[in-house]
Design goal:
Layout lengths: L7 E5 L3 H13 L4 E6 L9 E2 L2 E4 L2 H7 L7 E4 L6 H14 L3 E4 L17 E2 L15 H4 L7 E5 L4 H10 L6 E6 L2 H16 L7 E6 L5 H11 L3 E4 L6 H6 L1 H21 L4 E7 L8 H16 L7 E7 L1 E3 L5 H10 L4 E3 L5 E2 L1 E3 H14 L5 E4 L5 E2 H11 L10 E3 L17 E8 L2 E6 L7 H12 L12 H11 L13
Parallel strand pairs: 1-2, 1-5, 2-4, 5-6, 8-9, 8-11, 9-10, 11-12, 12-13, 13-18, 14-17, 15-20
Antiparallel strand pairs: 3-4, 6-7, 16-19, 18-22, 21-22
């Protein structure tokens, strides 16, 4: 997001993106003064663009700069690799820049000019993980043109990024559905600011506050909104917390999804994309089981015919989400540590939020009815390595300046996650980093019977009041339905 008028601005990159930003800053004359471009291209070095000199190479010139506290660098190289961004960040920090902003990746600047409002402070997720795939989102979102699109959990990490990218999809209306008033207010306000700055198309934005658990309300709202497409991201996601609140996890994640799916089918929603997690594979946590049951629900609903496209998209962790370890690590580093890690052997699959959302939107368009799709997550990352990289990002040395403390597995956690189970096989689709998961056999599970057994635990039945909020009964039922739930977390491996 933009900042108030500052001192001198240095734009890193004198290409199209950098020139566009400089021109915008020059015209508005409220965000400070661009005093130089820094670039490594010998064909650009020595030129002037809008009267602003292009200096370089970056490494050499940065050593000569004399920063003031108000000076700021804006990295305007949307196609830069992670390795190059890491190098640039180090150069700029050593040069004395304390304020460093960055444009989003090229996949988010969708066939249009970048804008200053899109810039944000650089953070560790920009430098960690692999280079994201570049997707022609304008083309990928063609299936949404003129449609009414609903995003559940629109105020969350995944939901809000889907909404940002959906601005350029040509949807006629974008419903921002969520339970939290503040988060929906914030994403609604942000999207309107982006639209005011000329980003995306003029979809009508409609914030909707509601609760997935309320069956009658969900029936009412889906009937009246007349959504053509639903991206369902809303869920409780904190694994240890859901172990302490297992009924809330099943009630919100599973019954909430059940209410939404029933209403979507009843009122003819054309396309339904459910976001799931690797923790649903051979689930050992209540959260994982709640998502596994949702997968089964949607895949078993799908074969009933009709013109709909109901599908599931599964992926692992995303860097920087509110429920991830990165915000926790950041706070721990800022207070001097220690940074707490479960085990030196714990690994997770990671992807950036923008890349995951771009691939979800792509899968939503190319996916087939009843399909289970998997995003290619690359290689798993040791959490210990992630902690060390984050400590270095903030200018400290691991163990020397900031300690790492190993705290052991928490309830519901395991050392490794798997992206597919023993009865599943990933198959390439022809679309980069999108796999289709084929089931060799479907595990036996009478979902309808399980729903009737779980319902009086989550919703008060006057004829069976003793079952209401009975967490032990819930766990017994889940263990009977999902055998992996009894598996020790430390015994699990991919």
């Amino acid at each position: 997001m933009t900042t108030k008028k500052s001192g001198r601005l240095y734009i890193i990159g004198a290409g199209f993106a950098g020139q566009t930003l400089a021109n915008e800053i020059r015209k508005k004359a409220i965000f400070g003064e661009v005093v130089a471009f820094l670039d490594d291209d010998p064909d650009k070095i020595g030129r002037k663009i809008y009267g602003v000199p292009v200096l370089g190479p970056i490494r050499d010139v940065a050593r000569l700069l004399r920063m003031t506290p108000a000076d700021e660098a804006i990295i305007a190289i949307p196609n830069a690799s992670r390795e190059y961004l890491t190098e640039l960040y180090g150069i700029l920090k050593r040069a004395g820049f304390e304020r460093i902003r960055i444009l989003p990746g090229i996949s988010q600047i969708i066939e249009g000019a970048p804008h200053l409002i899109q810039t944000r402070s650089i953070d560790p997720q920009d430098l960690l993980g692999r280079n994201p795939v570049t997707i022609n989102l304008k083309q990928s979102l063609a299936y949404l043109r003129g449609k009414r699109v609903m995003v559940t959990g629109a105020g969350g990490s995944i939901g809000s990024e889907l909404c940002r990218q959906l601005l350029s999809g040509g949807a006629s209306r974008l419903y921002l559905f969520g339970h939290g008033e503040n988060s929906i207010y914030q994403i609604d306000r942000e999207l309107r600011l982006l639209q005011d700055e000329g980003i995306g198309e003029k979809a009508s934005l409609v914030p909707v506050i509601g609760d997935l658990k309320d069956r009658d309300y969900m029936d009412y709202i889906i009937r009246n909104l007349k959504a053509d497409v639903i991206f369902h991201t809303a869920a409780y996601k904190h694994v240890p917390m859901m172990e302490e609140n297992p009924i809330a996890a099943v009630e919100n994640n599973f019954f909430g999804t059940l209410n939404l799916v029933k209403a979507a089918r009843k009122y003819g929603v054309d396309r339904f994309v459910f976001i799931t997690t690797d923790k649903a594979v051979e689930a050992v946590s209540v959260y994982g089981i709640s998502k596994y049951l949702c997968e089964r629900l949607i895949l078993e609903e799908a074969p009933r015919g009709g013109e709909e496209h109901f599908m599931v998209v599964r992926f692992g962790n995303v860097l920087g989400s509110r429920g991830s370890i990165m915000p926790l690590f950041q706070k721990q580093i800022e207070t001097g540590g220690p940074v707490t890690v479960t085990s030196p052997m714990m690994r997770r699959w990671f992807m950036t939020i923008p890349e995951a959302c771009s691939l979800v939107l792509k899968a939503g368009g190319v996916g087939e009815h009843g399909g289970l799709y998997l995003l290619d997550m690359g290689e798993p990352v040791y959490i210990k390595d992630l902690a060390e990289q984050m400590i270095r990002f903030y200018g400290f040395e691991p163990e020397k300046d900031v300690a790492i403390e190993y705290i052991g597995l928490r309830p519901g956690e395991r050392l490794d996650e798997c992206l597919w189970g023993p009865d599943e096989a990933p198959v390439r689709t022809g679309y980069d980093r999108i796999l289709r998961v084929e089931r060799k056999k479907t595990p036996l599970l009478d979902l309808e019977a399980l729903i009737e057994l779980l319902r009086p635990i989550c919703y008060l039945d006057p004829l069976r009041p003793e079952k209401y909020r009975n967490s032990q009964l819930l766990r017994d039922l889940l263990q009977g339905a999902v055998p992996s739930f009894t598996m020790p977390a430390y015994a699990y491996g991919c």
